[in-house]
Each structure stands twice: as C-alpha cells, then as structure tokens.
Amino acid sequence: MPIAAKRVITVYTTSANVAERQSAPPSLAISTVIFALRPSESSGRPTLWIPLVRRIREPFKGLWALPGGPLTHAESLQDAASRNLRETTGLAPSYLEQLYAFGGMHRSPTQRVVSIVYWALVQPTEAALADESENVRWFRADKLGSLAFDHNGIVEYALWRLRNKLAYGSIAYHFLGEYFTLAQVREVYEAVLDTQLDPANFRRQIKSTPEIEETGEFLQGGKHRPPRLYRFTGRPGLDPDNRSTP
Amino acid sequence: MPIAAKRVITVYTTSANVAERQSAPPSLAISTVIFALRPSESSGRPTLWIPLVRRIREPFKGLWALPGGPLTHAESLQDAASRNLRETTGLAPSYLEQLYAFGGMHRSPTQRVVSIVYWALVQPTEAALADESENVRWFRADKLGSLAFDHNGIVEYALWRLRNKLAYGSIAYHFLGEYFTLAQVREVYEAVLDTQLDPANFRRQIKSTPEIEETGEFLQGGKHRPPRLYRFTGRPGLDPDNRSTP
DNA sequence: ATCAGTTTGAGTCAATTTGACTATAACTAA
DNA sequence: TTAGTTATAGTCAAATTGACTCAAACTGAT
After folding, report:
1. Half-sphere exposure (Cβ direction) of B216: Cα atoms closer than 13 Å
2. Among the listed residues A78, A243, A77, the one whose alpha carbon sits nearest the alpha carbon of residue B157
3. Which member of B9, B13, B76 has the closest CB to residue A5?
4. What's the burial of A176, exposed, middle or buried (CB within 10 Å: 0-12/13-18/19+)?
5. Is residue B6 pLDDT above 70, yes or no?
6. What is the pTM of this model?
7. Per-residue pLDDT tens for B116-148?
8. What's the angle, vertex CA B52, arms to CA B50 and CA B56, rounded to 5?
9. Which residue in A236, A190, A234, A235 sits closest to A212, CA to CA?
10. Angle between helices B182-193 and B199-208 (to 10 degrees)
11. Is B8 helix (H, G, I), strand (E, B) or coil?
12. What gap in Å lies between CA B185 and CA B203, rounded to an integer?
C-alpha cells in the first residue's frame, strides 16, 4: 500500500499581507439566497422577502449578509447549502437550485474566496416558522441596505434569475403549498414580476399547462365565491443536482 | 500591525486513504466545454464538435477529458477558463459563459475536487486554427466515447444548456463570423437542435428580431442567387461575469 | 444563347394564440 | 333582500405561427 506524499502548507486565517494572500489557495464557501412571499406591512399584498444574517466577525462585522459557510468534506454542494440554511435560519426549502459560482479576486478584503451560491424558495408556512432573532432578520427584496461583500450584486442576479425562470419554467408553485387557487398563483406572478395581470387571461393560460391538475376541493372560509383548489403535478428542473451525477 | 494567525495543515497530493482524504480541503479546478461547428465527414453539413485533451497522468490516464486545470491566484474564474483554454487548445472563444459548479464527492477517486465548468462557442475559422495533436483532438458531440471523471455528464448538461439558450436567447451568432447569411443562421439551428426548419418561416422570424441588421453586401461566389449578408448588433448575456461584480 | 436546376426571398392563407373586454355564478356582509 | 366582491366562462379582434406558393437571381450544362 503506497504511503501518501505529504506537503505542508500554511493557511492564513486573518489579515495576511499581499504576498501571503497570493500563495494561499482560494477558499470555498457556500451561500444561499432564500426567497419567500410574505404580506407587505403597508398594502398587505404578498411581496418578496429574503432572510439575512448579521456578521459577527470581521470583515464587514455588523453588516447583513447572505446565510452561508464553508464547504465541509462529507457533503455535496447542494447538501452543504441545505444544511447551512437549516443551521443558520431553520428553514427547509421546497426548491433549491444552484445560482452561480462567484470568484472575483477582491470579494473579500482578507482572503481570496470562491462562493458557490444557491437560491431557494420556501413556502409561507415554512417562512413563518423561521428563527428570527437579533442576528437573523427578513428584509424586503427591493429594500435591502448595503450588504457585506458583493452580496448586493448576488441578490440582484438571483432576482433576475427568479423572474426569468418564473416567466418560462414552472417555478411559481414552489412558493405555495400542495393545494392552491389560481388567484394565489397569480399573486405569486404579480409579486415577483411586479405587475398587474388580467385574472381571466391568466387563468386561461395556467389552466392550459398540463402540469396543473384540477381537484374536487374548494377553498372554504373566504369572503366571496369559493375558488377551486388545484395541484401541481410537475417535477423539478433538470439541473445536474437533480439528475444523476452531481 | 497585526501578525497573521497561522494554522498548519497537511495537503495530500497522491493516493491518500479515506481518513486522510476527508481532512483535506476540496481542491478547485476550472474546465470548459467548447463547441464549434465543423462539416461532418459523411454529409458535409455542419455538426457540433468538441475538442478534448488526453490525460497524461492518473487518474484516468489515457482517457479523453475536458480541457481544464487548477485555479491560480491572480485571475478571476472566467480569466482562468480562457487562459487554460488558450494554453491547452490554442482557442480564443467568441462566447464564454459559466455552466455549473460540479462538486459531488466521488468525482475523482484520489481527491475531492470541485470543478467550476464554463462553456464556450468558437467560430469555424478559429476552430480550424486550433492545435490538433496526439493529445488534443476534436470529437463529434454526439459520438464521444467514455470520458474521464464525470465529464460525459457534464457535456450532456452543456449540450442541454446550449440547445435551451439557442431556442430562447440570441446565441447562434457566436458560431458565425461578423457577416453571415440567414441560411447560415438556419444551419446553426439545424445542427444544434438536430431538426429541419422551413427556410421561409425561419427567415421571417429571424428578421423580426431587432438585433439583426441588414447590410448592403452580398455573399459572392456561391452557386446560386447571392444571399444578402447580415450583422448581429446585440450584446452578450447578462451573467455576473459580463456585468459588474464577478 | 438558352435551359434546367437550385437557392434566395416575398407573400398568401388558415389555424392558433394573445389581449381586452363582457357577462354570469356564487358567496358574504349589511 | 340587496350591494359588494371574487370566480369563472366566454366573445372578438389583433398578432403570431405553420404550411405552402411563386417569382428573382444565379451557375453550369447543353
């Protein structure tokens, strides 16, 4: 049995100088942009919200940042994302997809970091259970302050992808529970795309997609005519993580 | 001036056992799937080709693999991809976009490797100049053998993305030179999507997109009526690499 | 010089889809 | 009972798409 050749190197964990930083290998981190719909305080209509965590150490100590952490040995990238998400926010997403690998050289002032970022959708029931504390808080996606690192740009790109995927793919249903009304689906579109949609035309389009199944049930307890409940029967995307070889 | 806190760890470069491998941090590599159109030997019509490099060391020594290499300190991810691409194949792509970060735990038998994979399109004139040698060769995208690592799956996913992006976005023109005929655009679509398209309807659709500009020139020297030359005036995608903060 | 063969490029027409809009059904609250 | 509100079906013109026809423009063979 061959013996492993070992080479001892040095890792700089804080404030290394330029020469030292250049010799250190880039470190790998996983972060996640989490989207949920919650009622706006003002209008009461659903809007997009994102949970952020406060940084408790330098760099950017005190600023808000995306939940994330280092990649550990015994887990795939997606597993690392969902574990980290559970640990920092208590959330279990109904949809999780890789967003992008950000690897610019000056993302962190102390160290070269490559971040593999995921994005997630959580249902409102889940979102309500999330641990909110001094260091974890929900923000409206269109009213974030200045975030740590390049996280403003990352959220912006995640928003672009979300809107894009909503317009094409069948992603909206992951914001909702198993049963939903067509008006709820419309509210998702209106909140994410920030537009008003004609109810009649919208329902015609949605009903024409084969992934939507009419159930025999109706939503009771509303103030008006009870709407029929539907169910989504499609499968997630075709990303490598959801295929065969991640 | 604070002194950097140093922590000494051990990196295993060859055949570490399981316990040792688990304690080693994942290493980062950049690879690229390169697409070009070249005439098929049989029909002469353009088809999709991919350049591969032969592995000259273990693991998978002798097998064909995607061009790639480690990420070095002083370059962004995209820069690393295009540098590596130039070094291994001599190619300078007209289009380069991040595909996916692959980080499954058993991608390499000797070591945990996270690969950030890009995909590229090169024009036929470029492709003809590429260094072809004993260890670099072009293959038809639909007739690859068994590749090293998980590279078969990666190519499959890249193909899916290429077809997807062709159907929506305006990507086809990066396979062509600055001036092109509408029939050439149609040939790109037919080669990539592997279908026959009605010439008259296709030209009507393409001409209706605002990114296509009619020039006053015509392609001379053909056997039949000289077709008008067009120009693409659109800009690349909206990926983070092509935006602001990579 | 003429004709056959081929590709470019414009146009026609019916089928389908989309956007704007109307009307009715079904419920609650007063 | 009635007014208010949402759900849902349906109508109709405009826009888009798919299948197809036809003239224009060139080459190469006769």
Report:
1. 0
2. A243
3. B13
4. buried
5. no
6. 0.89
7. 999 999 998 888 888 788 899 999 999 999 999
8. 175
9. A234
10. 110
11. strand
12. 9
**B46-54 and B136-140 beta bridge pairing:** antiparallel
Task: Judge whether residue B42 contacts strand C, using its CB and a 7 Å cut-off.
Answer: no
* Cα dist from A72 to A54, A76, A213, B111, whole Å: 22, 9, 41, 14
Q: Is the CB of B103 under 7 A from strand D?
A: no
Instruction: Give the model confidence (pLDDT) of A16-50 as tens digits.
Output: 344 444 456 789 999 999 999 998 877 778 999 99
Cα A208 from Cα A204, distance rounded (Å): 6
- Is A116 within 8 Å of B101 (Cβ atoms)? yes
Asked if B197 and B190 count as a contact pair (C-beta separation under 8 A), the reply is: yes
What is the average pLDDT across B28-33?
A: 97
Determine what percent of chain A is predicted with pLDDT higher than 90. Answer: 74
Q: Which chain D positions come under 7 Å from a protein C-beta?
A: 4-10, 17-22, 24-28
Query: What average pLDDT does this structure show over A102-117?
Result: 94
Write down the residue that tokens 């002469």 correspond to: B44
Chain-centroid distance of CA A107 in Å reads 20
Is pLDDT at A153 greater than 70 in this prediction? yes
Q: Using alpha carbons, select from B165, B142, B193 the residue that is nearest to residue B40.
A: B142
Cα angle B212, B216, B220 (rounded to 5 degrees) comes to 105
CA-nearest residue to B156 within chain A is: A240
Strands (E), B110-226: 113-121, 136-140, 179-180, 212-218
